[in-house]
Design brief:
By secondary structure, the chain is an alpha+beta fold. The protein is built from 18 helices and 24 strands. The chain folds into two domains: 240 residues, ATPase, nucleotide binding domain (Nucleotidyltransferase, domain 5), CATH 3.30.420.40; 184 residues, 2-Layer Sandwich (Nucleotidyltransferase, domain 5), CATH 3.30.420.40. The strands form eight sheets. It has a seven-stranded mixed beta sheet with strand order 18-19-17-16-22-23-24. Strands 3-2-1-5-15 form a five-stranded mixed beta sheet, sandwiched between helices. The radius of gyration is 23 Å and the shape is globular.
Length: 505
């Protein structure tokens, strides 16, 4: 039996999982670390925290499992996307990493679109300039910390810094590189045009690989620190959502998944590259070589339900072992449309399909008859309608999923899965694994190590469906009528949201 390691470098911590070649979890370990906010809207982390967490968790899973290091055939790394890691000529970190949720770069996004042109930028990178992406962070350092930029010899993404510490190689792979806004998405390589217009030296960037390709091997120094065997191969791995796609078997045309975490994601696999000229969804290279994925994002998915729980359900939190289960039951009793109550889940602005930072959450139709169960139901339906908005943009682009998987905390709710199935009018399934990103990159490591010939064949062997929720035709008909009203609300309120943003401090 051969074994592989999947490392999942998240925002709150790094989780490392040791799997056997059938995808069974043998051992896992988690180490958490802080995020720093030097100013309002800023978000930074220390790359050495990531490396120390990775080294410690690798060592822990090897020791806990009793699996000899010589039996570990490969390693894959998944990670939070878009973060900027800058190294000097001695490979020392120059400054803390500016991570994905940092919002300081609005002016740099305007600068990028002015230098390249918005339409041309979308044509090359498949996305408009966004504050979360890496290119605007690089431009911010150039503009505000020229002394740090002058010292920069290498630019890496978060997971690729851990790769460097393991292998000594400056490398990345196509799925994570897609989120830097420096990659030619169609040709899966760095864009000379974008780099030249932004005056970023191509030599700063690592070599780009496909996700299952071997990018380097464990060094003697890393072997001492981690317990791994020197020479163990490390594959490209993937960005977090691309890794989750492999870990759920979303690897063929027609495959898609919906994640309801803090934010919500509708992610669809496609063999043919498709770009939304309006930039409402992200098109990235996926972890299956030579193929792509399209992804719509709802900013306030699970966040909306958690906000209501923390603000209005203190008694439930105090007395219930599982507050969300109690809230689910309350929502279930409320029934479809929650007695004519709707909710817009724009608590954090919105990305897909509106791209509007001024959008705000709203209950519509609230009356004295409504109680907490109605409001919880309206929140869950509003998030589901927003995810349906994502799916509708994909449909416009010719990306039409035939089946849907549910992931994330919201995906564990039987009620929410039924709601998605009814609103999407398609079956919604779950898979047996709870370690989707780590398993995804472990599968990539299996392919790189030759245990399986292709990503698709590995997924077909390893992954099994756990549950399938079929749509109820009568429910779908009812939801369709309410969804039509939901879709009309944002256009009616758009200018009001903008006026509110302008009028009040």
């Amino acid at each position: 039996m051969k074994y592989v390691i999947g490392i999942d470098l998240g925002t709150s911590g790094t989780k490392t999982v040791l799997f056997d070649e059938m995808g069974t979890v043998i051992a896992s370990a988690l180490v958490e670390y802080p995020m720093y906010q030097p100013q309002n809207g800023w978000a930074e982390q220390k790359p050495l925290d990531w490396w120390n967490a990775a080294a410690e968790t690798i060592k822990t899973v090897i020791e806990k499992s009793g699996v000899g290091a010589e039996n570990i055939a490969g390693i894959g790394i998944s990670g939070q996307m878009h973060g900027l890691v800058m190294l000097d000529e001695n490979n020392d970190v120059i400054r803390d990493s500016i991570i994905w949720c940092d919002q300081r770069t609005a002016a740099e996004c305007e600068e990028i679109e002015a230098k390249i042109g918005r339409a041309r930028l979308i044509e090359i990178t498949a996305n408009p300039a966004l504050t979360g992406f890496t290119a605007s962070k690089i431009m911010w350092v150039k503009n505000h910390e020229p002394e740090n930029y002058a010292k920069c010899a290498h630019i890496l993404l978060p997971k690729d810094y851990v790769r460097f510490m393991l292998t000594g190689e400056y490398a990345t792979e196509v799925s994570d590189a897609s989120g830097m806004q420096l990659l030619d998405i169609a040709n899966r390589c760095w864009s000379d045009e974008v780099l030249e217009k932004l005056d970023i030296d191509k030599k700063l960037l690592g070599k780009v690989y496909e996700s299952p390709e071997i990018t380097g091997y464990i060094t003697e120094e890393a072997a001492v620190l981690t317990g791994l065997k020197a020479g163990t191969p490390v594959v490209g791995g993937a960005g977090d959502n691309a890794a989750a796609a492999i870990g759920t078997g979303t690897v063929h045309d027609g495959d898609a998944f919906t994640t309801i975490g803090t934010s919500g994601v509708v992610f669809a696999h496609t063999k043919e590259m498709a770009i939304d000229p309006n930039g409402r969804v992200h098109t990235f290279c996926c972890a299956v070589p030579g193929e792509w994925h399209v992804m719509g994002v709802t900013q306030g998915a699970g966040l909306s339900l958690r906000w209501f729980r923390d603000t209005f359900c203190a008694d439930i939190v105090a007395n219930a072992e599982n507050p969300y289960k109690v809230m689910d039951d309350m929502a279930d009793n409320a029934g479809i449309s929650a007695r004519k109550l709707l909710f817009l889940p724009y608590l954090m602005g919105e990305r897909t399909p509106h791209l509007d930072p001024n959008a705000r959450g709203a209950f519509i139709g609230l009356s004295a008859i409504h109680d907490r169960g109605d409001m919880i139901r309206a929140i869950m339906e509003g998030v589901s309608y927003s995810l349906a908005d994502c799916l509708s943009v994909l449909d416009e682009m010719g990306v039409r999923p035939e089946k849907m998987l549910a992931c994330g905390g919201g995906g564990t709710s039987v009620l929410w899965r039924q709601m998605l199935a009814d609103i999407y009018a398609m079956p919604v399934s779950t898979v047996d694994s709870k370690e989707a990103p780590a398993l995804g990159v472990a599968i990539l490591a299996m392919v790189g190590a030759g245990i399986y010939p292709t990503v698709q064949e590995a997924c077909e062997t390893i992954l099994r469906l756990k549950t399938t929720t079929d749509p109820i035709a009568d429910n779908s008909e009812k939801y369709a009528k309410v969804y039509a009203i939901y879709k009309a609300l944002y256009p009616h309120l758009k200018e009001d949201f903008a006026s509110l943003a302008r009028a009040l401090p």
